[in-house]
Specification:
Blueprint (H helix, E strand, L loop, with lengths): L2 H20 L6 E11 L2 E9 L12 H17 L5 E8 L5 E8 L1
Antiparallel strand pairs: 1-2, 1-3, 3-4
Helix pairs in contact: 1-2
């Protein structure tokens, strides 16, 4: 694995773990969509967390989620291309472990 991917993996994991920590304990899955806007030197993210199962509880992004996503954007900026949108999905398996997936839009 190249150095850049080795640096990205822990940031993705930090976002996923922070998402899991932010969700109610009765949720078995969650989706986070972060839309990123750049206006000059100012960067802003809008983050929405929802339940794929339709559970209605509103979930606010935590400081850990924000800091991990901004660190991830900084890493992408080093490589030359920063994502416009990042979507993280976390799902609890029958064994109680969590898995995650991430997709970026450029």
């Amino acid at each position: 694995m190249d150095d850049w991917l080795e640096r990205q993996a822990p940031l993705d994991l930090a976002v996923a773990n922070a998402l899991i920590a932010a969700t109610p304990e009765w949720w078995n899955s969650a989706t986070l969509v972060a839309d990123r806007e750049q206006h000059g030197s100012q960067e802003q993210m809008t983050i929405v967390i929802t339940s794929p199962d339709g559970l209605p509880e509103p979930i606010s992004p935590t400081e850990e989620i924000y800091s991990s996503l901004y660190a991830l954007a900084d890493l992408f900026r080093e490589r030359g291309t920063v994502w416009h949108s990042a979507s993280y999905s976390v799902n609890q398996t029958e064994g109680g472990d969590w898995k995650y997936s991430v997709q970026f839009t450029y």
